[in-house]
């Protein structure tokens, strides 16, 4: 949680969740079970990534979790636009992980022709190897890293210095809609100081 606050300026967060379609040739007797809205067959890799690109939880073959969503609509209040930006910025962690996986493990760029068991094993192997390589580079200076060099991911406003510790009780434990509203208020109040560039995003989305 502290890493998400220090590196991404998002409070009370222990992981970013997203899913990726791993394209495959339909399994024998698979029927439409593995057919996706993009018009192909795939096995979904649902993943939770921490603030340093390590995968802390994966579900291979998942059907999609309930997650915090941005505010919908075209004409939103400034505070809601800021919230959507900060939420999307924190979720970028897991999006970057998927980009890294595709860049480093080319097997994910082509369609699997394998059994369900083998396809799942390949994805599991990629996840394990990714975490191993990330952990091996943790104490390596950024400019000397080869698996995740500084320019491989999109990170604006990332701060290397330590921010003030975020107080764990700053936001109450409430239902999802209330938490989203609390975060909306926090990001344009006390939480604005740690991400001053957010106002530029408001003016130039």
From TrEMBL:
UniProt GO MF annotations: hydrolase activity; metal ion binding; nuclease activity
Keywords: Hydrolase, Metal-binding, Nuclease, Nucleus
An annotated GO cellular component: nucleus
Subcellular location: Nucleus
Span of domain DDE Tnp4: 73-131
Cofactor or coenzyme needed: a divalent metal cation
Family annotation (InterPro entries): HARBI1-like, HARBI1_dom
Any Pfam family the entry gives: DDE_Tnp_4
Similarity field: Belongs to the HARBI1 family.
Name of the molecule in the record: DDE Tnp4 domain-containing protein
UniProt organism field: Megalurothrips usitatus
């Amino acid at each position: 949680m502290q890493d998400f606050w220090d590196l991404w300026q998002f409070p009370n967060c222990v992981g970013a969740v997203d899913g990726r379609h791993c394209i495959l040739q339909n399994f024998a007797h698979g029927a439409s079970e593995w057919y996706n809205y993009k018009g192909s067959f795939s096995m979904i890799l649902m993943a939770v990534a921490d603030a340093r690109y390590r995968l802390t939880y994966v579900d291979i073959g998942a059907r999609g979790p309930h997650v915090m969503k941005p505010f919908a609509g075209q004409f939103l209040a400034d505070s809601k636009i800021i919230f959507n930006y900060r939420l999307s910025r924190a979720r970028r962690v897991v999006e970057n992980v998927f980009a890294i996986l595709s860049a480093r493990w080319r097997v994910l760029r082509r369609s699997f022709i394998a059994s369900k068991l083998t396809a799942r094993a390949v994805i599991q192997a990629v996840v394990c190897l990714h975490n191993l390589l990330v952990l091996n580079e943790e104490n390596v200076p950024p400019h000397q890293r080869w698996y995740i060099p500084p320019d491989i991911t999109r990170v604006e406003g990332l701060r290397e210095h330590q921010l003030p510790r975020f107080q764990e009780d700053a936001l109450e434990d409430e239902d999802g809609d209330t938490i989203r509203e609390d975060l909306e208020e926090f990001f344009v109040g006390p939480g604005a100081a740690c991400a001053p560039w957010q106002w530029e995003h408001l003016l130039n989305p």
